[in-house]
Amino acid sequence: MEMDERKIKILKAVIRNYLETGEPVGSRTVSKYTDLNLSSATIRNEMADLEEMGYILQPHTSAGRIPSDAGYRFYVDNMMQEQKDALDRREEELNAKESLLLEKVDRVEDLLQNVAKTLAANTNYATMVAAPHKSGRRIKFIQISQLERGKILAVLVLEGNTIKNTILQNVMELDTEMCLKLNVMLNSAVGGLTLEEINLSIISGLTAQAGEYGMLIRDILDAIAAAADSENDFQIYTSGATNIFKYPELSDNSKASELIYTLEEKRLLANLVNDSTDKDGGIRVYIGEETPVDSMKDCSVVTATYELSDGAKGTIGIIGPKRMDYEKVVETIKSIKSQLDDAFKKGGE
């Protein structure tokens, strides 16, 4: 069964009407909503085909139809293709309208919180903005030194001159000569590597080479790994959680509480941030089960990745019902992404 122009127009009419009303859509409504000039009987037949193809569903025997996840996906993919040129033309208007949110903000934290709040206010959905982060930074060097009896300071310097300090407690004492030897040993083995590249073979070689200091070397590497892991942690700013209650399909007690908990416990959004970080910085639309966060399986989520001059990346996300206004959301998120790209590039000059 082919997806011809007539079926596409009927599917779009069903989806657009459902986006506006949240109510199942019948053939009579579709007949008023399109320029096809078809009878209700013909439209019913076409809707039956669309249902068989998996694009729409009938929630109750006597009810109209609602879009399925596959229907939303078809609609969004076509909409984004059709609207690409129009979005490009309107981007300048949106940039001018919303550029004030990027002005007169000295701290990155304030800027990103502003973005989250502005997006929530403009879209009436829940929003999140992840601060830029960069994983896989290479180790420039490691410096260990004796602080006092039983305490060693390990300093880790990562690519980009990010410095992480950690103190090891209750360890064996080192004299100046042994500190120097261990520093040379460590930097010869792991300098220039990422943490992911420090494998068991490298650790075994180092501990064997260190002899009686082998256990200390393992402790130092563990402490360094823990310190470097904190470099991969990222701050997430959220806003508009209460907007969820505006949409009946999301506002029942269990669904709403899970969603709000996810937005408050921001670490639960890590899967979304990691999954949506795209090499080309493209806009991604997750519909229903496509979303990598369990509490958002009844939602649609639109994300975009913005990038700093040093390659660190952050994520913008808008979370709403499957019947969200995709055109408006894509326009808005594309505009904000462009502004953030420009703002951070200027900041790095």
Outline the structure in words.
The structure is a single chain. By secondary structure, the chain is α+β, with helices and mostly antiparallel strands. It has three domains: 5-67, Arc Repressor Mutant, subunit A; 83-133 and 234-348, 2-Layer Sandwich (Beta-Lactamase); 139-232, Enolase-like, domain 1 (2-Layer Sandwich), CATH 3.30.390. The chain contains eleven helices and ten strands. It has a five-stranded antiparallel beta sheet with strand order 7-3-10-9-8. A hairpin with an 8-residue loop joins strand 1 and strand 2. Helix 4 crosses helix 11 and helix 7 runs antiparallel to helix 8 (214-232). The termini are far apart. Residues 96-105 have low confidence and may be disordered.
Question: Looking at the chains present, what oligomeric state does this protein adopt?
Answer: single chain
Named CATH topology of the largest domain = Beta-Lactamase
| C-alpha Rg (nearest Å) | 27 Å
Give average pLDDT, whole number: 83
Condensed summary:
The protein has 349 residues and is of the alpha+beta class.
